[in-house]
Amino acid sequence: MFRIPTGVDQFGNLVMGGPLRFLGIVSQGRKEFGTVAMDGRPVEFRSPDGRAHPMLSSSWIGVGVVEPAAKVKRLILEAEKK
Question: Where are the domains of the chain?
Fold first, then answer.
């Protein structure tokens, strides 16, 4: 994950520039599960034993876990020593 400095100029245009910073590595992304529906009713499937189960759909919600750059750097340096 990197940070690129951004801003807006006097004309409302997006301006990017400046030093690029390494923030860390995304180690996990969060998924959200929702019930699949058709005509307002949940879609179900039946397991071999005959029980009905709702069908779920997963989607990424933009939330994740980031390992900080300092920790990544420390781990790389430790690995180089071994």
Answer: 2-81
